[in-house]
Design brief:
Length: 255
């Protein structure tokens, strides 16, 4: 599979916003391309401002930042749309049963699963890790997936790996499609995030948070913030939702 790049370009210069790692062409790709186009538009408008001889240097700087700030809500909307699609995909994946669930009255299967779980719990951590590294016993795998990890001692990461294996075996077509869609959404989120970083240059953090619209989107778009600033983002948006006045947030964080 040949990888493609999503670029934004202006005045002969090109900026790679992300790499498209899947052959999937759909809504995620459309959003990624829309983000690149939005950034192109920002750069064109900023170029017109910069070349306007009637504007002072200060006016050019202010107008350029205003142009960026006006476009940020569009990029934030794209990021929210990607999250909605991601939630839908997760719900779809969850609806596919990796293993056959318990049936009413099937006490023997429950008893066997619990016995297998007890056996795993009795192992030393190193023994359990070795046993889980090569789970060739499908019966053991199914037991692990039917029971909560607290009963088996299986780490959440390993549980997710076993679930993916079971889905690939029991629902091969759907599993491949879901994985491609998930990769496409991740690639699109990267493009939108890079477009946000480029577009928000010169815009105060307080304005960027307001443009994001909600804490989850702000967290997704405002990367590399310190823990203190991330907490201030949440407080600021929470106060806005409550209709309270908020203090400005300084823009001295690394981008």
């Amino acid at each position: 599979m040949s990888k493609r790049t999503i670029n934004a370009a202006y005045n002969g210069n090109s900026k790679i916003l992300g790499i498209w790692k899947t052959n999937h062409d759909g809504l995620a790709l459309q959003i990624a391309q829309a983000a690149a186009n939005e950034l192109n538009g920002i750069w064109v408008r900023q170029g017109m401002i910069a070349s306007n001889p009637r504007l002072s240097d200060l006016a050019k700087k202010e107008d350029s930042a205003k142009t960026s700030a006006q476009a940020l809500p569009k990029l934030a909307g794209m990021r929210r749309q990607l999250q909605i699609e991601s939630d839908k995909l997760n719900a779809r994946a969850a609806s596919l049963k990796a293993v056959t669930p318990y049936r009413d009255g099937d006490h023997s299967t429950v008893a066997i699963d619990l016995a297998l779980a007890q056996h795993l719990q009795s192992m030393k951590p190193s023994q359990r890790a070795a046993a889980l590294s090569q789970v060739g016993d499908l019966r053991l795998r199914d037991a692990i997936l039917r029971l909560p990890s607290a009963l088996t001692g299986v780490p959440v990461e390993k549980y997710a790996e076993l679930e993916r294996q079971a889905l690939e075996q029991n629902h091969p077509k759907e599993a491949i499609e879901i994985e491609e869609l998930r990769q496409a959404l991740q690639d699109a989120a990267e493009v939108v995030g890079q477009a946000w970083i480029e577009a928000s240059s010169g815009v105060e953090l307080d304005e960027r948070v307001k443009a994001a619209g909600d804490p989850a989107t702000a967290d997704a778009l405002e990367r590399n913030l310190t823990e203190e600033s991330a907490e201030r983002i949440h407080k600021r948006v929470s106060k806005e939702e409550e209709g309270e006045e908020t203090e400005g947030v300084s823009d001295n964080e690394p981008r």
